[in-house]
Amino acid sequence: MMRKKFNAQMILLDNLLIEMGALIETAIAQATQALKEQDIGLAKKIIAFEQEIDDKEKEIEALCLRLLLQQQPVARDLRMITAALKMINDMERIGDQAADISELTILMAETQYIKKLEHIPQMAEATIKMVSDSIDAFVKKNLELAKAVVQYDDIVDELFVTIKRDLFELIRVDSANGEQALDLLMVAKYFERIGDHAVNIAQWVVFSITGTRGKGAKKS
Length: 220
Known about the structure:
- There is one protein chain.
- This protein is mostly helical and 220 residues long.
- The chain has helices at residues 2-37, 40-70, 75-108, 119-140, 143-173, 178-210.
- Helix 1 runs antiparallel to helix 2 (40-70), helix 3 runs antiparallel to helix 6 (178-210) and helix 4 (119-140) packs parallel to helix 6 (178-210).
């Protein structure tokens, strides 16, 4: 009977992680839309939306602590719960960075962009894929998918290098572009950090399955 209840709570944990994943995917996508359209109203909604992500983190954390204190999880279950606690920290940070991007959107909203936003939306799309795949890997216990997320981060890093090079060239050509170029570079940096957090999530998935986290954990 106890095991049946425990299994039901572990299924609930999976579902809550899926819900939190959907929230941060929405935050990234809408922050990108607000940035592209210079939509101040939408940007402000993303900043407020951060609270909903924080609340979901607290709900998952409370469930994990109940599972640890009220049940006696075996080693594999213990790894899953530990991984979930670590994952939600990175997921909450992704929500923070979507809000940070939205704050920069508001700052830049009154001025036309110095260049067409091409690679930044590509970075956003890549990070959404990484977040979605990492959480899917956790729920499905899919080791190969988790490892693929870690490898996919190279695409985000390459896009960041391209954006940085393009923006520095715009500053070189005309120093008047400097302020906005630096704001756009910071936006790209936030997306790069989102990619790093997705890597961390994927590596905790690897830990939950294998008991070892692997190399290359990132700090953001």
